[in-house]
Amino acid sequence: MLERIRNERGSGSDFLDFKTGNGGTIEAEFLIQALQMRSGTWEPNWGKALTRLQANGVVSRTDAAKANLSYELVRRCETSLRRFEAKPVSALPADADEQQKLAARLGYENTDRFRDEYRLARETIHRLYEQYIKAQVV
Q: What are the respective helix, strand and coil percentages of the chain, to the nearest 5?
């Protein structure tokens, strides 16, 4: 289902597409939902679900902390862009100047630092998805 969403809704740029790209919000949400189904946990709130999964030993404390920080950054990007654009947004702006403005709105003085942290957040979510979900399916 995740691949279908990516194919149907993706923008074509994995780096820019924070919603459907690798390590994006949908992958993070699939991660938590799949772990809840596997462990018999039910909590609709993403953060509370992650806390419960960690407390039940489904994910390590370190992985839960990394997932939370990563998801938080990606969601902050989405929230900031939605407020600025006043409409639903699912990708970072392609224009470097617009990315600089977003970085500044998020409190970054250096756009490269924002991009690096954003990339790391996405990679972290994707790695956790691969580790906890994809590797378990094989």
A: 70, 0, 30
